[in-house]
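Consider the following assembly input.
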Amino acid sequence: MESTALLTDQYELTMVQAALRSGAAHRRCTFEVFSRKLPAGRRYGVVAGTGRMLEGLEQFRFGQAELDYLDSQKIVDDDTLQFLANYRFSGEITGYAEGEVYLPHSPVLQVTASFAEACLLETFVLSVMNHDSAVAAAGSRMTMAADGRPCVEMGSRRTQEYAATAAARTAAVVGFAATSNLEAGRRWGIPTLGTAAHAFTLLHDSEEEAFAAQVEAFGPGTTLLVDTYEVEPAVRKAVEIAGPELGAVRLDSGDLVEQAHEVRKLLDSLGNNNTKIIVSSDLDEHAIARLAAAPVDSYGVGTRLVIGSGSPTASMVYKLVERAEAGAEPVSVEKASAGKASTGGKKQALRSLDDHGRAEAEVISARGPLADAGYVGRQLQVPLVVDGEVQPGFTGAEGVQQATQRHRDSLAELPSDAHRLSDGDPVIPTIFR
Amino acid sequence: MESTALLTDQYELTMVQAALRSGAAHRRCTFEVFSRKLPAGRRYGVVAGTGRMLEGLEQFRFGQAELDYLDSQKIVDDDTLQFLANYRFSGEITGYAEGEVYLPHSPVLQVTASFAEACLLETFVLSVMNHDSAVAAAGSRMTMAADGRPCVEMGSRRTQEYAATAAARTAAVVGFAATSNLEAGRRWGIPTLGTAAHAFTLLHDSEEEAFAAQVEAFGPGTTLLVDTYEVEPAVRKAVEIAGPELGAVRLDSGDLVEQAHEVRKLLDSLGNNNTKIIVSSDLDEHAIARLAAAPVDSYGVGTRLVIGSGSPTASMVYKLVERAEAGAEPVSVEKASAGKASTGGKKQALRSLDDHGRAEAEVISARGPLADAGYVGRQLQVPLVVDGEVQPGFTGAEGVQQATQRHRDSLAELPSDAHRLSDGDPVIPTIFR
């Protein structure tokens, strides 16, 4: 099992060294993960990456190879190396479960442990959550715009190879039906899809030969790519070769709305009423919405999903909000940096709901249980790690399935403004009390 | 060694199956990697990721675990599994070496092998090159704007955890002096840096205690972060505690230009003329340029670098341009898809230079050696893989060092317009002949 412990900024380790020296390393601390704002123009955010983060937490160990590197570069001293050699997160992580909607300042994660234990996780936790949540926020709008038509994630080639795998997983959380990425299929049991690219047509002496080869290998139910040369003759050849059972044709270029109508008419005229039309080619939520009235059966989404459709990273931060000496009351702490001030104290969060179960506000407080203050709604924070043990249901294939269901439920609770694709304010306000 | 073989789109494998069945899998093919355009508004592109791609190529093997997954999901048939089990790239890869500048349509890579061998690499090659080249294009403008002042990469928390490591490596290629990312330090020998975050100050009972703890652990030459509360008193405390040897102070919020002037004046008035000023906080190439006249000693660059400063992915594609039956002449192939047409034939590329060695044009031809046609300049393509063997000098720490030098040289050759940060056309034209 590969260690994730060096997927981190050096200063997490040097802070541990200095705090071990000053004696403050053992103070019990709570760090909170939150974002001051949503991705530009978005109505809601989506918590994603939680399952991957918890999987990585179990591999966050400094083995001999990691320690040797740190020692060889004199990055930390011997006492710190000794601490790292024994490191195993033994604290608590509480937070919004994966798939849950979040708003500005939602306390999406709280990590409580000794300073040294919790500090070490900062970079890794933020890398996972910021990437996956950015992809999720974009992807959720895409499946919403697709309004029930299946979306397939196919953006691997447009992002770093492991980010691709994470993006494919995140796509599943926000309702994509399948991915082209095999590693995501293997790791999290996500359905995978894929048939052929233009190169397969170009490889053969003619488009007919290529289609015949593909049908021979995968049967008539396969998807034939019909825009390598001219679309209309290609559709005719496809039907001629695969017959009435032809599964689907894919269009990957040009004006998709116009072509979808023409191809549908042509397929129907040839008797292929059950042959589906799949479109791809730089689709984003807006392009999908424009295709709503076109006879399209599913969407292949690539680049725009994996780069967060204009917002490739969420702006979540990991801030110390509370510290306590052993046996003493916690002290609330906050920084005053211009434009980056934080609010001290461990927060509780509740999504207040009206009589119809519709979300009204995100209520956040560092002053004790919100239910006691008369707020009615849904408690958003659940235990993810207890005494260092990752709780069941959040990782692996099960974690993805649960997150997918949770996202659907969380979205269904939002006011209908959540469906608007135009830039706007958060769909419900954040209230501090 | 972890396999990279499933970091791929499913259709690469299904195409192999269908081509094995049709007999075309063994045709000798050349795929070319190129981009139709540069990232929006950029004057030049930067080839990056080549070293990582070659490292991953050596791990691109289907082991039992990968084969079991493919078999369990019935993704390909037994003949194809057999082919994959024996897969080892045995062909040729030629291309622009890492760090080299590229222009629209530059043939940055050519992969020549049987269709089956070359097709399988498409997704992996593009994932690596598209991500790293996007980061490189952004980062190159940042080091250019910094004009000799060191830049330090610290964006890990804003991108997927392995993309972070790749971004840190790419930053080194385009001239960043160091990174905060430890895994990049370990893998490629890149210098790492880091001292403390705001949390370290908040952890202690006072800013004085935190500064004292840090100086105690790392000596007075350390960098103290002075904007957790108020900057001016913090700088005074820092000097009082660390003395005249204080290495640097870091500013991470607010108006950096104004603060840099004030802090410099204050440090000098306290006799700390040698204490440096490091600034961070959402810097990009434009912010760095605005700080050119401010008394800043180095730049910490995070988010904007790792997300490609507005262009998080390059738009490189992997297109079949030539195929040949055994013993026969190669046939040039190209697709006609609307807006995505390709040009057939294996291309040669030359950067034509004037009498002063200044780049004038990118000359590309599928019709034979350009030197024979009277073009004077620099041949851009070098052998990266010969008979399946990765050539020396492109991978590991050496690969990064060579790429860094190559990028500097390649940039020095460009006309001065390359230095303009405003949106514009490519700095030299691409000429086809």
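The longest strand of chain B covers residues 316-324. Ask yourself how this observation constrains the way the partners meet.
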